[in-house]
């Protein structure tokens, strides 16, 4: 087992990961920020550049080990172990899987709910893995393989995300060359990886699958936003406030109508600062005294910059639009 890990140098796979990630984000109209943040966090923890090398604990200090977690109540091992990887192939494989699953889930759910889901799946998958290891020890006296196992990596969360993503799918999926219904893809991958990839954590992957199923069950029995989503929404609102404040300092307010045509609102300024033209029924800003649509004054009389509008009520909408374009040049 290695001691403190120094700063790592990529062997060529990380540039390919970066290039693939950038190309995927470039083609997306909506850029999912939480997925990008998770990929960046995992990669930076692996590379440990600059000051991070001195700040971050070594992999030796954060291995997920049920015995040490329960003995010392070590929450650092419980949470941080998911963000550490033993090698570049391990990291790149997990991050490509995160990129594909994260884009689909975050775009469909929204970033705040997706962040809440990832945090929940992380806690659930780690907790279930811990309970499974302890249960095997208590009920079957099976200690060496699982209770004293050392593991790291984001794959437990990824298995849980796969369960959530494919929950209602009627499609088929390729899992390492095997075609299976997408609903059972996580189970098939669990078995195939265990058969053909040495050194993987069976209990960690199984804990991820069970976490995904439990999350869906809890989500189905609870209506409305979960408490964690509400907390994340509040925190993002707090962090966005200074940005909005600075932006408002440099924003120039424009005066324009922003209204609809039709209805029964009176021609005088309302409490919301909007008045409706008596001639064409267009809603105008309270800062304007002349209708932006037809040029009629707020009192009911007036003229456009080109001609007097005496019978505005009889003008078709296309004519009113033409007059508006002539007046404002837009």
UniProtKB/TrEMBL annotation:
The keyword Transmembrane applies. The keyword Protease applies. It is a multi-pass membrane protein. It is found in: Membrane. Keywords: Hydrolase, Membrane, Metal-binding, Protease, Transmembrane, Transmembrane helix, Zinc, Zinc-finger. One of its GO terms (molecular function) is serine-type endopeptidase activity. Pfam families: Rhomboid. PROSITE patterns: ZF_RANBP2_1, ZF_RANBP2_2. InterPro entries: Peptidase_S54_rhomboid_dom, Rhomboid-like_sf, Znf_RanBP2, Znf_RanBP2_sf. GO terms for cellular component: membrane. Gene3D superfamilies: Rhomboid-like, Zinc finger, RanBP2-type. Residues 271-300 form the RanBP2-type domain. PANTHER family: RHOMBOID PROTEIN 2, RHOMBOID-RELATED PROTEIN. This is Rhomboid-like protein.
